[in-house]
Amino acid sequence: MYEIKENRCPICGEQLKLSKLVCPDCGIEFPVNQTCSPYDRLSPQQSAFLTAFLRCRGNLSDLQTQLNISYPTAKKKLDDLLTELGLYEKAEEEPPMMGFQENVILNQNSFKASDIIRNKLYENGGRITVYSVSGKPYVIKAAYDQKSFLCDQLPISPPYEYTVFDVIIDLLLKSGGKAPKGNGRNYRLGEGNCTEDTVVGAIAKNYAGKKNGDSVFDPVFVLAAVLDWAGIAHNERGYIELTASYRMKLKQ
């Protein structure tokens, strides 16, 4: 028996058409010549997402709660759905970086956030796009030094190393799996919403080596998006929280 996928002919690959309608009661048949709707080509997962989206009346916040997913994940699923229906054309992605992966040894068994993100970035050709809570895209690129990564929205020198993610995870683990992002744009380290129990404060003190009273750079809006992309932590408004799947990895 042939398996029908995306309403295409399993022999030649052409789009299938409806040729008849049948009454389930009396059995009478009516010949038709009708193409299948784009909605008929959706996968079961996409159909379920569309149903949930309609039940939430298009409210992504309600959809996040119902499906227990983050905003960037909901946004990506919606973009994929719209693309499948021909209602949205994705921007053409830049080609993968070439040559950067030579002589690189990846520790596939590590549960450290730095290793997981570095591995996934390399597996995706050294270039990915992540999304902030508001849906803004950021392009992340692997640096050729194999220790750091680049992003136009993080214009610092030297660039952030992958170990910055380990600093964030250490804070989350100490805080029961969840911590406020903080605000490094309006406060100095140790003041207001930039204390060391916030993500921005922990990065400033434990990664950048800043001291109380120093001004800090706030990279959390990008770094939280990367953690969400990697499946390590949910990027939510005002806070970051470890995912259930990553918690389970740490218990193994």
Number of helices: 8
Provide the structure class.
alpha+beta
Mean pLDDT: 85
Radius of gyration: 23 Å
Count of domain modules: 2
Strand order of the largest sheet: 3-4-5
Shape category: elongated
Number of extended strands: 8
Binned strand content: 5-15%
One letter per element, helices H and strands E, the order comes to EEHHHHEEEHEHHEEH
N-C termini distance? 42 Å
How many strands, what sense, and barrel or not for the largest sheet? 3 strands, antiparallel
Layout of SSEs?
Blueprint: E1 17-22, E2 29-35, H1 44-55, H2 60-67, H3 71-84, H4 113-123, E3 127-131, E4 137-142, E5 149-150, H5 164-174, E6 178-180, H6 199-206, H7 220-229, E7 233-236, E8 239-242, H8 244-251
Antiparallel strand pairs: 1-2, 3-4, 4-5, 6-8, 7-8
Helix pairs in contact: 5-6
Give an account of the 3D structure.
There is one protein chain. With 252 residues, the chain is an alpha+beta fold. It has 2 domains: 23-90, Arc Repressor Mutant, subunit A (Orthogonal Bundle); 113-251, no CATH class. Helices cover 33% and strands 15% of the residues. The protein is built from 8 helices and 8 strands, in the order E-E-H-H-H-H-E-E-E-H-E-H-H-E-E-H. It has helices at residues 44-55, 60-67, 71-84, 113-123, 164-174, 199-206, 220-229, 244-251, and strands at residues 17-22, 29-35, 127-131, 137-142, 149-150, 178-180, 233-236, 239-242. The strands form 3 sheets. The chain has a 3-stranded antiparallel β-sheet with strand order 3-4-5. The protein has a 3-stranded antiparallel β-sheet with strand order 6-8-7. Helix 5 crosses helix 6 (199-206). The model has no long low-confidence stretch (mean pLDDT 85).
